[in-house]
Amino acid sequence: MKKTIRFFLNGKLKEISVNGETTVLELLRSRFQLNGIKEGCGEGDCGACTVVIGEVREGKVHYKSVAGCLYLAAKLEGKHLITIEGLAQKEKLHPIQEAVLNAHATQCGFCTPGVILSILALYLERPNPGREEFRRYLEGNLCRCTGYASIRKVPEYLKDLIIDSEEIRPSYLEETEEKQLAFVHEDIFIDDGAHAYYSPVSEDHLEAFIRDHEELVSGQNLRFLNGGSDVVVGIKKRNQHYRLLVDISRISSLQNISYRDNQLTIGGGVTLSDIIDRVNPFFPQFSDVVSGMCSEQVRSSATLAGNLVNASPVADTVPLLMAVNAVVHLNGCNGTRNVPVREFYHGYKQTENKSDEWVASISIPVGEYDFIHFEKVSKRKEVDISAVNSAIALQISEGMIKKASIACGGVGPTTLYMPKTSHYLEGKPMTEETFLGAYDIISGEASPIGDVRGSADYREAVMENLLMKHYLAYESSQEAECHEE
């Protein structure tokens, strides 16, 4: 096992020792004096700390934008880190920099490096992006000078420069990619006596490590992470430190998506961005839910498994997974276990998985329901945490509800599956009166509390209103089908 990390920084190979809790933001500003990266919110919401990461997946180097304030430096092993300092060649601006300049898309300049690197990640991965793709990659970049109109014009100015996709690629990429593809990956174990970091390349290695290091994995000393976005926020802002962080993001067996016999299986290491791109043909409603979560810089590393295990009572993926009765598959040294998402939560931040178990995959039944719908209420449309969210899944035949499943978040210590409300809807006509009649039932199944996002009474009212929004969404879908016919 290695005690140092090797990675490429703007095309140059680096081998360094790092603390397991050091972020890319801290590494760049303190160790390398590369100060183009800025710290704004420190929570992955503003985009000022955006950098580009090139990593090998399925025999090819792929690029993504990440939030440097949340991305642990130890995760850089074998990857290529690109910063704003690595774009301009001597006195010649990179085409994206030139387009930003020509579009007058920079004012105070604080957000500009992050904006440019988000655009770079997009064009490296998708050479001819559409307007929606551009919007998706930039939705996590806040401009305090409100220069959004100019920023949105950058693709037009890139076209005016009459460049091809090769000109977008920094000159050192080809050589660096060859070296990355030839990289030999090993387990990493860093321990300074207070905080340790372990990153295995296989589940077999992980099991062996857990068995050999009982003193590190006992009690509450161990914390698994993949993207690690919420874990790092806890470390940096809530003083939540762990004796051992186990990073399972390099285990390839956890990064698969498969669809067979109406069963969608998403590996524990699959990122939210991959879900948006690859799950839509099988489960479009789920892709839509994930698209409304966090920013691209966070989605590119955060995982569905992490969203589940984090156990937030307002996690957006959980109500939909409960509604369709998804199952979490856990692996550990003592074998495997399968737990329905509806039974996964025992209380606030309390989950079924044991401290030495990790999420291998999540299986989702597809095709069982005629209508599936998700709603959330938050202060912002995107990149915001829900105050209340709700999902419903219905089997409908000849205007009657044959089977119903509904779950709500933000109205209890965990996301709540609503068995009484679900049962009440079954066997009744698919009408407004039926859903109005369910108001008292659903209110009796929840116990909301007040916080900064809304009072208890507000949350209860929103929960009831979302029940009606599900019905109205069904009505709209039927009208749309009639117009298509």
3D structure, described in words:
This protein is of the alpha+beta class and 485 residues long. The chain has helices at residues 24-31, 95-102, 112-125, 131-138, 148-151, 154-160, 165-168, 173-181, 203-212, 214-217, 229-237, 272-278, 284-291, 296-299, 304-309, 317-323, 419-425, 432-437, 439-444, 456-484, and strands at 5-9, 12-16, 50-57, 60-67, 80-82, 188-191, 196-199, 222-225, 244-247, 257-260, 263-267, 327-332, 335-340, 345-347, 350-351, 357-365, 371-377, 388-397, 400-409, 416-417. A five-stranded mixed sheet has the order 2-1-5-3-4. Strands 10-11-16-12-13 form a five-stranded antiparallel sheet. A four-stranded mixed sheet has the order 6-7-9-8, with no helix packed on it. 34% of the residues lie in helices and 22% in strands. The chain has 20 helices and 20 strands. The longest helix has 29 residues, at 456-484. The model has no long low-confidence stretch (mean pLDDT 94).
